[in-house]
Structures are given as C-alpha cells and as structure tokens.
Design brief:
The structure is a homodimer. Chain A is α/β, with parallel strands linked by helices. Chain A has helices spanning about 15-25, 40-45, 70-75, 80-90, 100-115, 150-165, 185-200, 215-220, 230-255, 255-265, 265-275, 305-320, 320-330; strands spanning about 1-5, 30-35, 55-60, 95-100, 125, 125-130, 135-140, 170-175, 205-210, 225, 285-290, 295. The first copy, chain A, is about 45% helix and about 15% strand. In chain A, helix 6 crosses helix 7 (about 185-200).
Chain lengths: ~350, ~350
C-alpha cells in the first residue's frame, strides 16, 4: 500500500502536511508514503526524521487558490497536484491525498485520473457526526447544479462508501428533502424519488425515502443524498452551529472561578464533546466516482487532520469500493428527460 | 390593536393556545385578543379566567393535518382558520396567529386575505439565532421552487422585516450560497446575484453579496435570502444540530455526582445557553407578502411560544412593514426570462 501526499496543498503546507505524514508513517510502518512537492522545503520540514517508509518526489510548482481551477493543473505541469495525480494514474501509488484547492483537485482528478466509465460526475462525500454516530453526506459542493441521474448515482456511490469504507451493513439511504412524503420538495426531488424508490424495490440500495435535515442529524439515515448546493448548505450549517455552540459552551466555563471549577469537574466529558465537533477526526472527503482513490483534506488541515486523511485514504484503497462501483454502474442509468 | 388567534391550531390546541393567550392578555391589557374556535372547548380551557381584553368567537370546524391544504379552508367554511382570516380581511382584527397546518394557513391567507399586489409569492421568514445575535431567514419552506424574481422580492421583504420589525438599521442582505464570489453557485444564484447587486447599487437594499451558511451563522448578515428548499435545509439543520448538541451538553452534567455539582456551578450560564436554543422565544414566523399580518406559530407550540407569537403579531401590526412593501413593490420587478 502506497499513499501519495500533496505536500504543498492547503493553508499550512508544507510543515503540517509533512508532520501529519510522519505521524502516520510511524503508526503505519506497513504503508509507504510519498510526499510530492518542493523537495528542499519538504526535506527542511522533515528535519532529522527520515523514516524508511517515507519518500520525497520533487515537484517545483504549486497550484495557488488564485489559479483558475479548471486549467491550473495543465498550465502547471510540474505542480504537486499534477505530478501526484499522474503517479496515481500510472500505478505508482494507491491513493492521493491533498489539502489543496478543491476545484483544481477535482478538475485535475477528473481529467488526469478520469471518472469511472458511466459515472456522470464525481461527488464529495464527507462523513458528518449525527446523534446516532455518523452519516455520509453526498454531494456537498462538487456539483452545484444536479440532474436526477446525478442524484441517483450519488445514492449508489454513498451507499457503497458507507458499506465498504465505513463498514455499515445495508446502509439506509435518504433523499434530503423538506418533508418526508414523496410529494414534498422541488421538481428535482419529485423526479428523483421514484427512481430511488424503484432502486430500493429492486434491492440495489436500501432507500428509506425522503429525509428532513433535522431527522438526518438525529441519525435517521446513513447516507444523505443531496445536490452539491444544498448539501453544502447543510454541511456549512453544521460546521457553523457546531462552532458557535462549542464557543458558547466554552464561555460557560470561563465566567468565574466557580465555573472554572465546574469545567474541571466535567473535563473528560468536555473533551469527548469537543471531539464530536472536531472535523479533523475524519480527515477529508473522498471524490467518489473517480477511477482511483483521491482524498480532499480541508484547506485548513493541520498535522492531525492530514494524518487522519492518510488513514482514510488507506481504508478507501483497501476497500473494494471502486470495483463495486464499476460492477454496478449499469444499474445507475436514468433515462429521464428533465424539464 | 386587536389580535385574532386560532384556538384550534397545532398539537396542543386548544389548552396551550388559550393559556398563552391569557398570559399575553395579562401582560398587554392594551391589546384585545380574540380566540376563534369551538366556543365550548375554548371556554372550558379558560376556566375561571375571563379578562376584559379576551373575547371568544365560535367556529365549529377544525382543519386537520390530513386535510388537503389547498382546499381545506374552502371546504371547512366554519373552521377557525377560515373564520379568523375572514375577520382579518374585513378589518375585525389587525393580525392573525395560528399554529395550524402551514400549507392550509398559507393557501387560506393567500386566497382569503390575498397577497400584496405585485408580490409573486408569500414567504416565511423565521428569525434564527447567530453568534452575533439574530438574522432573518427568508424563505424557509413556503416555496420549494423559486425564480430570480421570487428571490429578489424575498431580499426586499426580509430587509423590510429586519428594519421595521426587528429594528435593525440598514440590514445587511446576503444571498445564501456555496461561496462568496459572484461566480459561485447554481444557475438560480448566478442569475439572482447581479439583480440584487444592482438593487444594492441603487441603495434600495444593503446587499453584501453571497454568504456561506457558516458565515451566516457567525452573524455575517442580517437577512439570509434563500429559496424555500435550501432555506428549509438550513433551518432544520440548525434545529437538528442545536437539539443534538443541547442534549450532549445536558448529558455532560448527568454523568455522576461530580458532574451534577458542576451543573449547579454553571446553572445561570446553562439557562442562558438553553434560552439561545429555544425556538419558542421568537414565537413564529410571519408570512411576508400577504396584505395583512399573518403569523404562523410552530405546530408543537406550547403556551410560552403562543404568547411570544402574539407579541410578534403586535410588533408586525404596529410596524409600517406592509405599507413599506406596497410602496416599494415596483422596484422588485425582474424582467428576466429564466431557463
């Protein structure tokens, strides 16, 4: 198993990327890790640490946030993203991890590594915390404008991710909507529901119907199917409310000596509470639908997030998810002319 | 000032509705309140309390959740919603409050009381808590499918609500989107942005551009403009995460004798924390765009929520918002043919 890591992507590159990689390399000596980026900077960040399972591949260019995401990887042929994805394509690694620009990474993955044949669009599928554990939210921003077929494919992709990568048996798939009844929602939801219902009846996915955002947060399903626009609204609202209420809870204990003592008394519980809100625990989100595992880590990733994104990449690469998608892609075809 | 209250709407009618009305009547002796519903049941709920400013109007029918929302008010001519809205229409009251079926109330308000001339669709505009205070979210479910013109009208309506009812000076209006740049989002957002930008440049609204959900929760704007589908996703996600994390915080203090003591030490702060999460504080949401004030209270409203919905109805009726909308409706026209 060999994971390729973009050493230059994200706000804290290369130092935190290198740090996270070294931490993962120590804990997983069975996994080879390849850091791609400006060799001098990467080696400087490594310092005295040179584990046997970490190698460095030089790439002189860096794709910046200001670069045009659609063309950056072509113009900067020696960028860490372009070099890393070409290595993935030619089999010099089993998965690619990057905290770089989402748009540039998605364009490059789509055009260099390519989508699985028959898959219309790659989707992002972050794992969100719920009151019952976790759920996959697919898509959450890669595709602002969706068709029925995209949503149907997301349902299968998310279901395969939940079962193959998260180990959830017979994952419950819900269509994110503003009411539970099939008659609820906009025209996209109205047209998608019967196609998912039919897939459920054929036993291809475990479709439980429409799910409201509130029920999804309660843990009402394992896979939340959304267009990239509304999935992103949901994801960012979760992050926003989590951060806001996390801050309020913190303030609760900082008011006086008395409340500070209270903080000490609930210390272990508070730690667990904070961990629940920590997006870095998961690491990143896979681009599902790409023919090889590509993991996008958050742009603000620190070492801990990168370490977890690497473990996630290992899990995705070890799973049979891509073979499963390829074997089932014919079932995901939708012949509907949309208005 | 006279507020008409649907005594039969919602899960806890008539007992909690009557209780909330009596509480409001005691605190606001200057406001007349008219309870509309099955007189016997309403009087039974009132018991010995017969304040001078509360009257009862008999209506023998009740619109149930299972009734068709589009036609229920016509079929049940003697329902509390139909009778109450007809009283509002003919000037026998200044505002109507109901915790009944959203769909039935919206249809009835639209067809009995009518929309303001030129307004394409009425919208729901709940006030949500943010890290900086509060924001108006418009729409959040009345209109699943929206056009550019609807969104543009929502921007004006929400802006007028924020200034006239909440007292926010020059409210900052943001278009809910998945990125801050004008180039972000789906085709609806791409087409709406320039129209709002132009309205901002003319000084008619204080348009600050696109706003991401996370920034909105931080308090980045005072009015969040959304189609009813994604606005509902945002609202229900806030409710879901709030309830989930509220529960986790509660658990934090229930683990042992030690943590229970901690709970006592932060008691006052905890109370304030819970209040922030309490949707009943606001009471309900106005149907903006209807020619008279109609307030929808949550279906699960207890007495406290109804009491607050009545105060909210008073504020809306006292404000100049409807005259302001009427005076500005010509500015909200959009001549775009949408794809």
């Amino acid at each position: 198993m060999r994971i390729i890591i973009d050493a230059m992507g994200g706000d804290n590159a290369p130092v935190e990327i290198v740090k996270g990689t070294l931490a993962a390399a120590t804990k997983r000596p069975d996994v080879e890790m390849v850091l791609v980026g400006r060799e001098e900077a990467v080696r400087a960040a490594m310092g005295q640490q040179t584990p046997a399972n970490v190698t460095v591949v030089n790439a002189t260019e860096v794709i910046e946030i200001c670069d045009d995401p659609a063309t950056a990887f072509k113009k900067k042929k020696d960028s860490s993203i372009t070099v890393g994805l070409n290595m993935l394509k030619t089999g010099e690694g089993d998965a690619f991890v990057s905290a770089g620009s989402t748009g540039a990474l998605l364009s490059a993955a789509t055009l260099v590594v390519k989508r699985i044949k028959g898959i219309r669009r790659a989707a992002m599928c972050p794992v969100i915390p719920t009151a019952a554990g976790q759920a996959v939210l697919i898509d959450c921003g890669a595709n602002a404008e969706c068709t029925v077929e995209y949503l149907v494919q997301f349902a299968y992709l998310g279901s395969f991710y939940a079962s193959h990568v998260l180990g959830i048996k017979n994952p419950r798939v819900g269509l994110l909507n503003i009411g539970a009844e099939p008659s609820k929602g906009d025209s996209l939801r109205l047209a998608t529901w019967p196609v998912l219902q039919a897939a459920g009846e054929r036993g291809e996915i475990n479709f439980i119907g429409n799910i409201e955002a509130k029920e999804a947060i309660k843990g009402g399903c394992d896979v939340i199917v959304a267009d990239g626009y509304s999935g992103n609204i949901m994801l960012k609202t979760i992050e926003g409310v989590g951060s806001y209420l996390g801050g309020e809870v913190k303030k609760l204990f900082l008011q006086s000596a008395k409340t500070k003592i209270a903080g000490l008394l609930v210390q272990s519980g508070l730690k667990a509470f904070k961990a629940q809100l920590d997006p870095d625990r998961v690491g990143g989100t896979a681009f599902l639908g790409i023919s090889k595992p590509v993991i996008k880590a958050h742009g603000s990733s620190g070492a801990y997030a990168i370490e977890n994104a690497i473990y996630q990449a290992v899990r995705v690469a070890e799973s049979a998810i891509i073979a499963e998608i390829e074997a089932n892609v014919d079932k995901m075809k939708v012949e509907i002319t949309q208005s």
